Amino acid sequence: MKLRRRIAMIATMSLVSIGLTTGIAAAPAHAANGCPLGYVCIYSPEGWDRNSPENVYYRYDLYPLYNQYGDHVIFNNQTGGARVSLCERNDYCSFGTNKTTPFHYNLTPFNYIWVSSV
Fold first, then answer.
1. Are strands 71-76 and 103-106 parallel, antiparallel or unpaired?
2. What is d(CA 87, CA 55) in angstroms, rounded to the nearest whole number?
3. Which domain holds residue 63?
4. Residue 63, Cβ neighbours under 10 Å: how many?
5. Could you read off the pLDDT of 23-32 as tens digits, one per residue?
6. CB atoms within 10 A of CB 83
7. CA 1 from chain center: how many Å?
8. pLDDT tens-digit readout, 33-91
9. Per-residue exposure over 14-32, b if at least 16 CB sit within 10 Å of its own CB, e if not
10. How far is it, in rounded angstroms, from Cα 15 to Cα 9?
């Protein structure tokens, strides 16, 4: 009896160890509406309702926006006051915010999104 319990305990510990090292159950921490913590996400209005972002950005960089017209929801789920800006050209950004609540914005005049540190 004692041997069975020991074998069962070792088997359970092995499975837990495998799960921890392979990330089997690792979900993004604090994902909100499908946007993982640390990311900036752009949604169509319908995508916001379905928790399905169209575009996600993680690294601090300037990204081109392709086929993004009309109203969209932008969600800055970054930490540490990181900033997201909308740019008409790659050298001119006319809108920027570090707010972390979702906001609606017409993306038609913008060609780039800039994810930056404070």
1. antiparallel
2. 16
3. 29-116
4. 15
5. 343 444 567 8
6. 18
7. 49
8. 899 999 999 999 889 989 999 999 999 999 999 989 999 999 999 888 888 999 998 88
9. eeeeeeeeeeeeeeeeeee
10. 10
Q: State phi, psi for 96 to the nearest 5 degrees.
A: -155, 145
For residues 22 and 93, which has the higher predicted lDDT (pLDDT)?
93
What CATH number does residue 38 fall under?
Answer: 2.60.20
Does residue 109 belong to any structural domain of this protein? yes
DSSP string, the chain: -HHHHHHHHHHHHHHHHHHHHHTTT-PPTT-BTTB-TT-EEEE-HHHHHTT--SEEE-SSEEEE--S--SEEEEEE--STT-EEEEEEETTEEEEEE---S-EEEE-TT--EEEEE--
C-alpha span between 20 and 25 (Å, rounded): 8
Residue 57 forms part of a structural domain: yes
